[in-house]
Design goal:
- By secondary structure, this protein is mainly β.
- It has four helices and 20 strands.
- The strands form five sheets. Strands 1, 4, 7, 8, 11, 17, 18 and 19 form an eight-stranded antiparallel beta sheet that branches.
- A hairpin with a 6-residue loop joins strand 2 and strand 3.
- The relative contact order is 0.17.
């Protein structure tokens, strides 16, 4: 998968590492549960002595990619597009000279040359983090992307060093005039999804890129039900936040429109267990530790 054209305003990318887990205990009040970290009460569906809630996962910030360091912490991809798009990927110096990358205040801009005729491919930008990640919580605040236009392929994803053996996790992806985000995961071996525990209807149900019942390299893919999760609807809404939680038990993707970004994300203290049902949920179909390793963010 490649980005043939890209226009993103990236405010903040947070990479958070798992530090500890704490069990939420039942409150002495019979009909309520207390959140161990905040003290707030929540209604219990059963008596307190019989009620258990999932363990709350606590994260601490390990990496921030922002306007102050973004272009120093990524490498610019300049090879021929592996998916044969009509594109020329530029290095940092060339992209700067062509005004395809810049920062302003807290914002980061990456764009494509949309003004000149370029018979050898349209100049664009593709970057990869120098840091390699294994599990964690990735949060990206994005203001703008290509507006569902023919010939565009914006994406925000992670990739292992040996594709597909180390896997690929597409948090944001769309092509041409697509209306909604279609997150997708890719593996080299069978990793079937049931569609349970997610809001997005499945398009393809096996993350295995070699599954003979699916299009080649399709992986497992769902469509976010929110009409403002991609393209023109996303831009008209002022963008939003994409989040991916990656653990040994599950990999999950959420999208939050600008006006519905959870308060814990805004505070820098995210609690995914409070965010509701994700749009894509990979859980129980395969050994996630063996199929997703050493991911870099693209």
């Amino acid at each position: 998968m490649a980005i043939s054209t890209l226009l993103l305003l990236l405010l903040l990318l947070l990479l958070l590492g798992l530090t500890s887990r704490s069990l939420v205990r039942a409150d002495p009040t019979p009909d309520a549960l207390r959140d161990a970290s905040s003290g707030r009460h929540r209604r219990a569906s059963r008596p307190a002595h019989a009620t258990k809630r999932p363990r709350a996962t606590h994260y601490t910030l390990t990496d921030t990619y922002d306007a102050g360091n973004f272009f120093d912490r990524v490498d610019f991809f300049t090879d021929v597009d592996p998916t044969h798009g009509f594109v020329q990927y530029l290095d940092r110096a060339a992209a700067t000279s062509a005004s395809l990358i810049s920062t302003a205040g807290h914002e980061i801009y990456m764009g494509v040359d949309f003004e000149r005729q370029t018979p050898d491919g349209r100049p664009s930008v593709r970057v990869t983090t120098q840091q390699v990640f294994n599990k964690g919580l990735i949060i990206a605040d994005i203001l703008h992307m290509p507006g569902g236009v023919c010939g565009t392929w914006p994406a925000f994803w992670t990739l292992g060093p040996n594709w597909p053996a180390n896997g690929e996790l597409d948090i944001l992806e769309g092509v041409h005039d697509q209306r909604r985000n279609r997150p997708a995961f890719h593996t080299a071996t069978s990793c079937p999804l049931s569609g349970a525990g997610q809001t997005g209807p499945l398009i393809t149900a096996n993350c295995n890129v070699h599954d003979p019942t699916q299009p080649n390299n399709a992986g497992c893919q769902a469509e976010d039900p929110l009409p403002n999760s991609y393209g023109r609807g996303f831009n008209a809404n002022g963008g939003g936040v994409y989040a991916m939680q990656w653990t040994s038990a599950a990999v999950r993707v959420w999208f939050f429109p600008r006006a519905r970004i959870p308060a814990d994300i805004r505070r820098g203290a995210p609690h995914p267990e409070r965010w509701g049902t994700p749009s894509l949920n990979v859980e129980g179909g395969c050994d996630l530790d063996s199929v997703y390793r050493d991911q870099q963010i693209v």
